[in-house]
Amino acid sequence: MSTDIPNSLRKMFDEAEQKRLWFFSQYQHLWFSPSKLKEEQSSGRFRWGAENWRLRDPKERLEELRRDAANSTKEADDFERLLGATGEEVPA
Q1: What does pTM read for this prediction?
Q2: In Å, what is the CA distance from 87 to each residue of 16, 19, 78, 79, 80?
């Protein structure tokens, strides 16, 4: 398999590595570090043009995951209270 970076992405890889940004594709909400995307591309996967990628700070994704986890915990707690209010047995 080729390890060449597609020409349309060379500048993006340079910027990502310099600024510690990651590649994000909004089509499938995929996140890749520059090294991981190079690895995937060398295996023939995700060899998309630059128009399919945005460079983003990976801390954005971490914050999103933490926010989603907190919301899920709140939703589970709310549902557990609802179960208790109906007299249903709450699983341990």
Answers
A1: 0.75
A2: 54, 55, 15, 13, 11
| Residue 60 CB partners (closer than 8 Å, separation 6+) | none
| Residues β-bridged to residue 55 | 23
**Closest among 35, 43, 31, 41 to 8, alpha carbons compared:** 41
Domain boundaries, the chain: 1-56, 58-92
Which pLDDT tens digit goes with each residue over 40-56? 999 999 999 999 999 99
Cβ-proximal residues to 75 (8 Å cutoff; 6+ apart), any chain: none
- Could you give the percent of the chain with pLDDT greater than 90? 71
